[in-house]
Amino acid sequence: MGNKLAKILLPLLLLSLVALLAAVAIGSVRIGPMEVLAVLTGSGGSQRAQMLVLELRLPRALAAFATGGLLSLAGALMQVLLRNPLADPYILGVSGGAAVVALGAIMLGLSGIWIDAGAFGGALFATWLVYAVARRGAGWSGNRLLLTGVVMAAGFGAAISVLLSLGTDSGLRSMIFWLLGDFSFADQPLDEWLVLLLALAFTLLLARPLNVLARGDVQAMSLGVDVKRLRVIIYLLSALLTAVAVTTAGTIGFVGLLVPHLVRMAAGSDHRIVLPASALLGGSLLVAADIAARTVAAPRLLPVGAITALLGVPLFLYLMSRRAPG
Q1: What's the total number of domains in the chain?
Q2: Residue 79 placed within a domain
Q3: For the whole model, what pTM was predicted?
């Protein structure tokens, strides 16, 4: 186990460092690798390089990495919870609830902390609403939770369409960028990193029960796992991770869906490896997508979510073709 863990995680750690260094070096103004290292270590660098690296690019890169890690970790948990390989962090309507309140705040001319607070509050409300509805009547189950979440997500989607149709021309661009993902105002990434690290440590404690739960409720209960309690913990934790990610950067698709797939294809289904590897790979991929969003049409910025969708759709189709029978 130790050798396999090192073989998977060490290359991903190296990839993460390379992605972060590339993010602070690449842009409309390129900064050489040695000058980047000088700025990061505090041993030199021009004043312009220090401003670009420390005030603009590094906070954005750290926010992108943490967001990718949160979404990938939430996706891995959601796929175990629902025992559905197509489950992603947004499938239960968390992002829809966040989007409705955040877009409403933008329409009212609010900005900054008000949009973030509205998005986080909307995500928590959607989490509570889906859970409260799903556990009524016939009782709580994965399928009932999934169906409730899909219906709620559709309702939130309709509300988003109404808000977009009512939005002013001046606010419409901001609303669309928020919906498609944007790190332009993600300048305080340390809180998100703290959530990611704490969540990763906590989920690693649950790795063995998750491995058992992935094989089915009956086997899990026969081995002494409190399935109902574990499912509630997974749901609430994945919803919280998604809420933090959406609050930071808006809606960014495909990361939480595809990254756990890629990790399981390469490393198997042991969650002691899947969880940290998903966080590292998801963070690296979203940093790379953000670099593309900043540079492909420079000096204009592209929504990061558009880049992940352009990359994610063909990759998803390729993975599905590999899984197809015959």
Answers
A1: 1
A2: yes
A3: 0.90
